Amino acid sequence: MFKILIIADPKLAGGDLLERIAGLCETGVDAVLLRAKFLSEEEFRALAISVKQICDKFGREFIINQFFNVACELKSSFWLTSAQIDLLQNFSDTSDEFGLNFAKFKDFKDMATKFTTISPALKIYAPAHDQAQAEISAKFADILIASHIFATSCKAGLKPKGPALIRKIKARVDRQVYALGGINKLNFRSVLDVGADGICLMSEAMRCENEREFINGFLADTLV
């Protein structure tokens, strides 16, 4: 069964963000990533605590993007940015503005390994915009995010990579791969057909009128 990961961004949310996340978690999504790059660390931490409480209530995986210090504090899964992958690749002892350096990341990964027996387990996610980046990201992450697969307003003017990117990555690295970018109920089957282990939903998930109907659009023909 493929996984459904929701990217929660306050700027994209139609209505109350926390209510939207709760509705999606209750419906049965597998994981929620909180992305809010425009917030200060203090503001992000406060929001992350509230989102984590919702995820914990429904037994969903909670993932933090970019704010490494907060991920350490809350013991959540973590989604590395491309810049953070570059920093790790250079084995840097200098921390970025979010508290990440190579030594701290190694400690975090060791901690995550100890949590593999809990549900949901802590995982590390990283971008895979092309095959070369996928091979680098695979050194640090459990799950790779292939993007952008289909045309999306978030990447206006940029040519999508298409499902073929997923097939290429799966052929070269032994990691789970999730598809991101323009995924909807009409095209998601094509990424599963080439080996995607999960799909990431963002804009439509944040603005859907009914969370249950929205998620069931992806699950209806997979339920036995």
Automatic annotation (TrEMBL):
Keywords linked to the UniProt accession: Thiamine biosynthesis
Keyword DNA-binding among UniProt keywords: no
Record bears the keyword Flavoprotein: no
InterPro entries in the cross-refs: Aldolase_TIM, ThiamineP_synth_sf, ThiamineP_synth_TenI
Superkingdom classification of source: Bacteria
Domain Thiamine phosphate synthase/TenI: 5-75, 128-204
GO function term, MF aspect, one: thiamine-phosphate diphosphorylase activity
CDD domains to which the protein is assigned, alphabetical: TMP_TenI
PANTHER family associated with the record: THIAMINE-PHOSPHATE PYROPHOSPHORYLASE (PTHR20857), THIAMINE-PHOSPHATE SYNTHASE (PTHR20857:SF15)
Name of the protein in question: Thiamine monophosphate synthase/TENI family protein
